[in-house]
Amino acid sequence: MQTENVVSRKEKILIVDDAKLMRDFLKNMLNELGFDNFTEAETAAETLNQYQSDKPDIVFLDIELETENGLDVLVDLKKLDAEAKVAIVSAHSTITNVKKAMELGAKGFIVKPYKPKKLVSTIKNLGIEIF
Amino acid sequence: MKLKQKILIFVLTMIVLPMSLLGGFAYYLTTISAQAQAKSRIDNQLSQQTQAIKNHFVETLSTLTLLSKSDTLEHYLRIDQQSERYSIALGPLLNLFADYSSAFQHFYEIRLVKANGTEDARFTANLLNNTTENESNTMWFKKAVLSDKDEFLTLDKNLDNDKTALYAVKKLLKISPSGRQLQGELWGYLVITIDPSVIKKVVMETTDEGGSNLIINKDGLVYFNREQERLLHSIPKFLLNKLISSSKENELIEISYNNQLRLFQAKALPFNYYLVSGSIKDVIYKDSRQLSMATIFLSVLMIMLAGILTFNMINRYLLSPISKLSQASRDVADGNLSIRLKVKKEDEIGSLFLSFNKMVSSILTSKKSLEHYKNHLEEKVESRTTELQQANQDLMTATKNAEQANKLKSRFLANMSHEIRTPLTAIIGFTEQAIKQEKQPELAQSSMNRVLKNSQHLLTLINDILDLSKIEAGKIAFENIDTSVFELLQDIENDCRSKAEVKWLDFKFEYQFPLPKLIKTDPTRLKQILFNLASNAIKFTEKGSVTICVSWLTQQSQLQIDVVDTGIGISHLEQQELFNPFTQADSSTTRNYGGTGLGLAISKHLADSLGYELTLESEKFRGSTFTLKINHVDSSAEPIFTKPDLVQIQQSLCQTEIDLSDKSILVAEDNPDNQALILLLLEPLNIHIDVVENGLLAVESALAEDYDLILMDMQMPQMSGIEATEMLRSTGFDQPIIALTANFMKSDISKYQAIGCDDSLAKPIDTEKLYQTIQKYLSPDAVIANQLSEYEQKLKSSDQYQNLSLEFKHSLPKLVTDLYQLADHQNWHKIASEAHKIKGSATSMGFPELTLLATDLERLAKESNDTVILHQLDKIAQSVDNINKECR
Question: What are the residue boundaries of the structural domains of chain B, listed by start?
Fold first, then answer.
């Protein structure tokens, strides 16, 4: 599906969201930026397993999972790998969430619905050069 | 009483006295025991002697009995007829007697004496002169007649040889011819005269020198005496009684005899004789006395030794050190500080001595320093007096200065008060007028212009005061960067020309080339100095010209700038006060010319701080020349020989070159008036503006919405702009953030930059700067903008997105049905979470109106507001309906 004039990117991306629609949507956006190496997870357990097996470069972690809180998953991910690059995705920009996520070591906080511009700046903040 | 005496008494009572008592007791015991020993010795000797004599007596008597019972004697006695007897029996009898006499050597005479006292038969061992043949007058015969005993012993004088002899006498009874003894019929006596050698020998025996032994009878008659030369014939009666009683009680009797004390004891012998034994007391007790003497001697020796030793020890170890110490103390008290005690031992006394030595040393040190002080006191007094005089003078000067400063300050405050009130009066008055003149816009415009002018003046005034206080407190950091003098002076010209033109003054610049192209300085501060000088010159010049001359003194490495005016000039007296703050040449000038009077003071301070020289030459009514010499302008700087062409930047209000209508910005500002002002100022730009009142909301809004720029006040309640900026940057927010701040110090600005602000704007807001800044940051990098829009376009048109959107659209009716069902079950919690999902996805799928509706629904569901929820659900259903209709 990748457009020809976009440079292919090697970074592996783990997308954590309980809604398939949203995962597909984010995948689509990232795809258009040249990323095509994705793994997906819906729950905390899946996330940790995927992280261990695939060693993704960046993680998009939804805060409002079906039964779990994304921030708890963030804590576990950081325990697994203190250097893990995680961007939090949330429908809320509640300051407590933002503050906590940043304190726990998140490298980005993106609020749904987000525009492509925001996604780009978030990816940049994760240390990946695009544009 | 001295300690020595006390200790002496102590030693005497506690040591000498008890020891003396012990010694005395020992002496007493020794004496007693010696006496007992002597007594027992005498007693023993006496017993032995007595026994020997007794034995002799018994032996003699038994021999006598044996002889008396011999057949020969019996035979002899049986013959009554004397002649017959003599002829028949005398021979054998005498033979018998001879046998006995030869057997017992000391039996020197054995006889038979008839009852009437005549001798009948006799055997004599020695040829004795026997003068007496009738024995009836002899002592033994008289005793025999009187005695009722059959046999006895007696000591008597032998009348034949006049020597004492022992007579053993046995009564002989008549014997009938048949051999039977005839009772009551005395025949006569068998008498043995015995030499008393045995008794004499006993008497002579004694161990003691000077000891005496006596044999006496019960009447005190002395028979034998050891001391032959002092023959004692009889013992006095009183003495005899004592002796006899002593024999019974076994005690020693003390008798003074021949000027010697003697001790006697008597022991009874058979037949009423006594053996008396005596010794010289001194001789007996010689040994015991020696022992006693030794005891006494030893005791006394011990007492003396113990006393002397104890006393000596105490004296040596305690008293003499104490007296040494006290002597040393007296010496120290008398002023001899060179004294030191010799520490011999590391005991308590030793440490006492050490302490004393230390004390003396420290006394010596303090005495020396005291002397030193004393010696230097006069010098010090003199120097202190001088210092004091100086200090007094200084104090007077300072007081004078302080008074002057106080006066100046008061005057300044009065001026300030006047200066602040003046523009404020204008501002308030004209503002009121402007409000009233609502219907006369031209008049209102004119009033508002005056308000603006006065406000700007007020701001300058306040800035000047703040500047001066900062400079005085040394709180300004200076830059040192390449600066073009021409550009700087161009700015001054731009700022001041209009003022000069108003007064019809000739405002000129004279450059003496060559001049350095660039100099190293702080452009802001240098400009401030030059602006002050130039505007000052224009202010105080009524006619003529104001000229700014620039020249390069290459040899001194200086750039000189003169500001020359043809104004009122300043007298010499006024010149001295001119650069002091709070001063104008004349307080009346304030009223005439306005101004804060701070400009020159600020300039002077700044020049000093930068290391420049600011001087003044002036003559009253002829004009003044202020000269600024900028140091360290190297001759190596690039010289130029003509004035470079400078582009005149014409700034104008609202000169929008870029269309900003599609941009949106967020303003975070807590003060409502400032919010309103900013909105008003930005109105001409035609941008979408959202306003929040604190950092928390700023973060939340910036993350939730898409702003192209944020104007962020740095001081806000709840969360400051600094904190909010830091947080936004950490989340990856990369749009420009402009700091709004009243703290426009350089250190503050660099701090804001460090935390992620792109630029800073000072409060009060300079409108032009605000426009410039916003335009600058809203004109994005064209390349990136293109890339972004290309990306967005591509995204919108991608098949995948179209499919996703379609999929979402088709799922909507089912979602609405589900929501209604949940509402029937009053499951508000589930409704909230569903609404949350729609909110997050709808916009992305191209249905932003649905996101808005879902946001409201989530809020309502959380409040469990059922009636309104149903109404909201209806709205959503309607919207979904529309979406699907459009699609068809």
Answer: 69-196, 206-282, 479-640, 667-779, 789-887
